[in-house]
Amino acid sequence: MKPLYFACLICMLVFSTAAAQDYILGEGDVITISVYEHPDLKTTVRISGDGMIAIPLIGQVTAANISVTRLSKKIEKRLSDGYIVKPQVNIFIEEFRSRKATILGEVDSPGLYELKGQTSLLELISQAGGLTENAINRAVIHRKKSPNQKERTITINLQQLMAEGRGGRNINIIDGDNIFIPKKQVIYVTGQVKKPDSYNYEEGLTVIKALTMAGGVNDKAAAGRIKIIRSIRGKEKLLEGVKMDQPIQPNDVIVVPESYF
After folding, report:
1. 12-43 pLDDT, tens per residue?
2. For the purposes of burial, counting CB atoms within 10 Å of the CB of 68, is it exposed (0-12), middle (13-18) or buried (19 or more)?
3. What's the CA gap between 239 and 235, in Å, rounded?
């Protein structure tokens, strides 16, 4: 089993309980509401098209577009207003509305997935079979515009998510999200270096960093005449006399020539 995929499964289990309470309710969700020591108030309702539910004693309550925790507190506040002293409300989601998200790119089974219940980013990656060997440690989420939110792009560093174990990075996927896992980009280092080969491209990569990845230059290298072969719109361009702090782009070929002496 791939290490990152295994880590996804572990994090998924750690965060699932908290995520259920953070689930944002919406039209079509069916919930059961119970009040501690008041079994007569237990009720199962479906959130209507206008986002409302009917609760004994207090009547209509807005339930859509808020979390399970927030709805519980809202109901407790209404019940404490002349009905019950210090009420304790529990909410269980009986049935989730139909929601879907798309995940594309470097996963084993890209496509459209139904979000059955609260679904985190790691859970969706797991449903899609995990990451391929060519995946980079980054997920890009394109989230559609909603009435209260502008369209936006969310970038998640998967490596940090695994290393730090921070639940805040394992965001919940919502209806209509489009998730893209990019493919690794590479550079090439050739010529008079100790380990000429292709290497994974990283943001902020420079000539000196690329040479370090290749084990450094050898005794025959002309370090002052390093060249870069760069493809621009399908045409190759030769950059000569590049400096060590020259930024590198994906697919660049760094050429270290042999010294004349």
Report:
1. 444 444 455 667 888 888 999 999 999 999 99
2. buried
3. 13
Of 112-121, 176-185, 188-197, the least confident: 112-121
Strongest mean pLDDT among 4-13, 22-31, 50-59, 93-102: 50-59
- Give dist(CA 243, CA 223) in Å, integer: 9
The answer to whether the beta carbons of residues 101 and 176 sit under 8 Å apart is yes
CATH class of the structural domain 186-256: alpha beta
Alpha-carbon span 184 to 200, nearest angstrom: 7
Q: Return d(Cα 137, Cα 139) in angstroms, integer.
A: 7
**Would you tell me which CATH number, out of the four given (3.30.1950.10, 1.10.510.10, 3.40.50.150, 3.40.50.620), belongs to the domain 30-95?**
3.30.1950.10
| Tokens of residue 132, six digits | 């391929």
Dig out the tokens for 86 from the structure: 């210090």
Task: Parse the chain into domains and list their residue ranges.
Answer: 30-95, 98-181, 186-256
* Beta-carbon count within 10 A of 35 CB: 22
Q: Average the pLDDT over 104-112 and give the result.
A: 95
Specify whether the CB–CB gap between 137 and 157 falls below 8 A: yes
**Paired tokens of 202:** 């990283």
Q: Which CATH superfamily is domain 98-181 in?
A: Outer membrane lipoprotein wza domain like (3.10.560.10)
